[in-house]
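User: Predict the structure for this protein chain, please.
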Amino acid sequence: MATFTSQDLYGGAIKAAIPEGWLDASDLRQIPDHQELFLSPITLSTLIFEINERVSEETALSSLQSTLNNQALDILGPNPEASPDTIDKAAALYHLNDIRDGDGNGDTLRIVTPPHQVSLAKLTNARAYKGIAVITSSTPERARSGVPTSIGGAAAGSSMDGPLVFTVSVHYLLVRLQEQETDILVFLNVPHKEFDGRGDSRGLSREEELASETVDALVERLEVVDWGLFGG
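Assistant: Here is the predicted structure, written as structure tokens:
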């Protein structure tokens, strides 16, 4: 079992947990105001917290209709009704698609574990969903994803000889705050290349397990202590 450290976010307005020993990227480079980014000290994995405008019912459903595919059908059914659960799951899919490169050309999104509702221990009135997806791309860096461009000199998901296919597992938690018109997003990204390159399938499995445990820890420990963070 992994060990986690309590972590203040956004000046202490939110309390969370991060894997013990992970590094605050703001000590290394500038991070957008709506993000908090943490780096594994031994792998290319990243943990990203984001505060975004809440995806509206209209946007979630219209986006779903325009990108309806077999995976969405498997998650929501062939004729999804506009229930709160369907809207929230559609919002989760919207955010996952938003991670992908611009128009998504060259990127593929595969749902490993569909978004499913969880109960937050310290945000009992919020609707929250977690799941796992895999994004595969020929573009090794997307600014939106928060994956570092380079660690130790080589681009994540590439070789010194040129770009390779970049595959990353995304373990995520979506917290929907209706009154604050806010979505809190947490992504723990696990790039596969460093493990695949050395044939370390066990290492990849351990990293995936850490990612899942991190999301579970946040389900128990994520807390808003200053609601003024969201304005209004």
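The CA atoms of residues 118 and 143 lie 29 Å apart.
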